[in-house]
Sequence to fold (379 residues):
Amino acid sequence: MRFETRAIHDGQEAELTTGAVTVPVYQTSTYQQDGIGKPRGYEYSRTGNPTRQALEQALASLEGGRYGLAFASGVAATTAVFQLLRPGDQVVAGDDLYGGTYRLLERVYRPWGLHVDYADVTDPAAFAASIKPNTRMIWIETPTNPLLKIADIASLATIARKSKALLVVDSTFASPYFQRPLELGAHIVVHSTTKYLGGHSDTIGGVVVLSEEEAYQQTKFYQNAAGAVPGPWDCWLILRGIKTLAVRMREHERNALHLARLLEKHPKVERVYYPGLESHPQHKLAQRQMSGFSGMISFEIAGGYPAVEQFVSRLKLFLLAESLGGVESLVCYPPKMTHSALDPAERKRRGIRDNLIRLSVGIEHIADLEADLLGALGE
Fold:
């Protein structure tokens, strides 16, 4: 079956008793057993829930993995993957990544005993040079947050195999519709299902998708032991969201590409970060490993932070808010919002300038979005 069909049907068969065509919300904490040690497949909803299982099967199918594990947030999913490591292990992470992941690595796992090094996410050779005898994981985002850099998944997968490390890809910005890292050699894929997969800014969640049995069993054990699982209603909302993922992603991309080209030509814009532009340094790589460029744009506005404040205050449709991937358009100021965990010197070192603005382009009519941006830029 094609992607669009699997998004609607895999893991979501009609309910047997009533024939309901949508997966029921199994709003229960526990399950009656037929006898001591004789459950009917479920015992306690932290361990397993039919609605959550449907979501996990659906997401595994979309990514081309054997197993999916749902979590209460994207950060909870990230934490579960880092729990595959032990004190003294090294992780090599891309140098452009979500501020919450940086905070987790630096303020939780480094004191815990993890060795953390960062490499230029666009340069596989930099990762290869960072490999040590204790390297157990390579962690990347692609496209990255907030500078929309593209990492070469296949090349990094080769490096990971040679060093016997796990390659983990946070593919939240792309969604499974535009990118499937497991098909390019990655071992594990992570998403914040809060974003494009849910698609309606009404739930929080995360998922880990993988195919290797040992890593699955360890992560499954952690999921149950730590208990950071989504409730059945949140799972149902994400299931509902993925049914329209393909349709939404095509509109997100269409609108974003139009606006990126518009911004690139505007005299008040110094630089645009969008992998769909031919001017993007990794445009050809993005074309090879992605089937589309998604709906995220970052750009630098002339005039520094005062210009950022003025621009944001003039917007009418783009809402000032964290998060991304919903049907509505959002604007974010990474230095004080998503990447505030990085101190100013670290942000500067990573190329996050004080005039950087990030857009999550929604699926409103493109003429209205264009008018909103141009009006905020002073036209």
